[in-house]
Amino acid sequence: MGTVIELASWKRSRSPAPDAIPDGDPVVGRDVARLDAAVQHLGPMVSSFLDRGRLDPRVETELLAIIGEVSVGLVTEAASRAERLVGKLQARATGQERRG
Known about the structure:
Number of strands: 0
Shape: elongated
Helix content: 55-70%
Order of helices and strands: HHHH
Structural class: mainly alpha
Radius of gyration: 15 Å
Number of helices: 4
Distance between the termini: 27 Å
């Protein structure tokens, strides 16, 4: 694990292609906000798991998938995956995750 990326800064710094969706698109803005909120939750959660030992490989795989989706512009998919991961980690932290 290395760098935490502030999504709003990342979005501002990106140079959109000429045929890209306009920056003011409300769908893109909503998905970036969803992803940013999920990442704000994931940061402390992942840190607390790391403080107690090694990160579960499934969680690590999900984090890498989120990074990959963001890197190719699949922000909606990354936001959904990040939100699901937050839910799983919250359930695990409260002991509500089903084994299986």
